[in-house]
Design goal:
The protein is α+β, with helices and mostly antiparallel strands and 139 residues long. Helix content is 41%, strand content 29%. The protein has one domain. The strands form two sheets. It has a four-stranded antiparallel sheet, covered by helices on one side. Strands 1-2 form a two-stranded antiparallel sheet.
């Protein structure tokens, strides 16, 4: 047995140990299908991220409009508290420092008890905020 391990021969036969020739691997890189699938996944992910970004910007603009509308509404409510006008329908346009214009409409009804409704619209005439309150003349 020891002779076999050293010489590589068994009962008159010689055994030659040769290296197998290298077999070319089929996987030398990415195939066209793999590349197309990876590109498709990346495009879908990029589109999803872009959609989130656009929605975030839109919501930010809407929230800023609503915040401005709320400030304009509270301002008018305080004006009416200081000097309540006679019953009727009124409106005005408020131009904010950033150039945005908001339309305010308010209605005052009643004599002893005043019902006041204030509506603020955006420049696109979309209602942003509305409030209704009932106040006595002794505000």
């Amino acid at each position: 047995m020891q002779d076999f391990a050293r010489s590589g021969a068994v009962a008159g036969y010689s055994i030659r140990f040769e290296r197998c020739p290298k077999v070319k691997s089929r996987r030398q890189g990415f195939t066209l299908i793999e590349t197309a699938i990876a590109t498709g996944i990346l495009v879908i992910a990029a589109a999803a991220i872009a959609t989130l970004f656009v929605n975030s910007l839109r919501l930010g603009i809407e929230n800023r409009e609503k915040t401005n509308a709320n400030a304009v509404l509270v301002n008018k409510l305080e004006e009416l508290r200081m000097a309540p006008p006679p019953s009727g329908d009124y409106s005005d346009v408020v131009v904010l420092p950033d150039g945005t214009s908001l339309l305010r409409e308010w209605r005052v009804t009643g004599t002893a008890q005043r019902d006041i409704t204030i509506i603020v619209y955006s420049g696109r005439h979309v209602e942003l905020i509305r409030t209704a309150t009932t106040r006595s003349m002794s505000w």
